[in-house]
Amino acid sequence: MAPICIRTVLISESVDPRCRAILEEHGIRVTEKQNMKKEELIAEIKHYDGLVVRSATKVTADVIKAADNLKIIGRAGTGVDNVDVDAATKKGIVVMNTPSGNTISAAELTCAMLMSLSRNVPQAAMSMKQGNWDRKKFMGAELYGKVLGIVGLGRIGKEVAARMQAFGMRTIGYDPITPPEVSASWGVEQMSLEQLWPQCDYITVHTPLMPSTVGLLNDETFAKCKKGVKVVNCARGGIIDEAALCRALESGQCGGAGLDVFVEEPPKNRSLVDHPNVISCPHLGASTKEAQARCGEDIALQIVDMVNGKNLVGAVSATRIS
Question: Annotated catalytic residue: which of 236, 242, 294, 297?
């Protein structure tokens, strides 16, 4: 591809310092401004050729409309649901992410959630801090021999499968893109969602948030599951319908949930966070030193490659532009 001229980049969130260092080493001027309100970002964005964000900055159509010189939006992380990709594409702006940077961190947190759900670790720890010694209350169950349903068999789903197989779990899954013979080579038997729901003791979701995945687990699908199924969402808020999950927890149809993500972050509705059978985290999937270093470095190197006319890695909109 032809080189693209990028002289100035705005970093609007806390990104690993390697990102700035790499860009500056290649002669790109970098400005860091965090916690900007939408109006501030709209006023500021016209001065820059590139924008680097994580998940908090909402790059809406209004922001893109004001971005007279913008040529690239770099997301230091995986999901780009905080960027209006269509509006960017129409304006000829390349949107790219760092798809592999936080894979291991997200997979490890998912496994930690599965283990915590099986043994009530957070609840027991809190009980101890309150001065209690309550062994009967926190009776758990082994993961060994249980069935784990993995919905979404991309990078993260694959890594979760490998780790939970080491615990002796049987891993089954669904993915509309990954061929069944490929997932079978790493020990995951693929099947339709209709076949998957009734077999699972645990379900974990690893899909993007898009119209076809909103409310993937809802009243109807919970009813098809085993009574007491435990669910984990370290992907995106909204893949599991939050109201339906509340109802399933209340009825006992769902035996517990591990949630790292919410439809609204931070969640104003506390009914899930406060539920005794819910373990929740404030969106920590990519919050490790290693993932942040990887994502910051990857997005900077991808921008530099673009400036030098090399291959576009991680571009989610460039195919449509070309």
Answer: 236
Q: Is 206 a catalytic residue?
A: no
Catalytic residue (one of 265, 270, 290, 320): 265
- Tell me, yes or no, if 283 is annotated catalytic: yes
Sequential DSSP letters for 40-67: HHHHHGGG-SEEEE-SSS-B-HHHHHH-
- Residue of 20, 54, 206, 283 with catalytic role: 283
Contact call for residues 175 and 147 (beta carbons, < 8 A)? no
> CA dist 126 to 84, 139, 144, Å?
41, 15, 26
Q: Could you read off the pLDDT of 48-100 as tens digits, one per residue?
A: 999 999 988 999 999 999 999 999 999 998 888 899 999 999 999 999 999 88
Task: Please give the C-alpha separations between residue 317 and each of 89, 97, 153, in angstroms, as whole numbers.
Answer: 6, 10, 22
Q: pLDDT tens, 103-141?
A: 999 999 999 999 999 999 999 999 999 999 999 999 999
- 275 catalytic, yes or no? no
Give how far Cα 140 sits from Cα of 115, 177, 199, Å. Answer: 10, 35, 20
